[in-house]
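Task 17 of the worksheet. Students: predict the tertiary structure of the chain below and write it out as structure tokens. Keep your answer in the requested format; marks are given for formatting as well as content.
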Amino acid sequence: MKLDNIYLKAGTPFSKSINSWSEENANKVNQVTERYDLHIELFDSLLIVSENQSISKENWNLKSLFDKNQKPCYRIDINGTLNVAIANIELWLESNKSKNLLIVGKDEIVKNKNLDRFLEKLTIVKL
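Model answer:
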């Protein structure tokens, strides 16, 4: 399943680190430069990439915005069991019929070696 659009926050280390993966898994990768609430209609789902369940206040607020608008959210911990995480994300995307996915994560996560392993495994799955 290839996504129609993946949205990333413009200019962040996290977005830069997953940009090439995003280009392989969506018809178009869009950089968001303004507040998310101004463009909530563009997104149909939210993926929060975290490590050790650590999520920034900004991303918690973003999750609340999606909840308020009744749009599905999924949080993935790249330090968790990789195969379970991959299976769960596939199922989540399929069951929610996600086509316009916003992906966010803390910038510090790019230093975690598990991010590359996670993206490699997710590429093998081919969303």
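Marker's comment: The longest strand covers residues 3-9. The mean pLDDT is 89.
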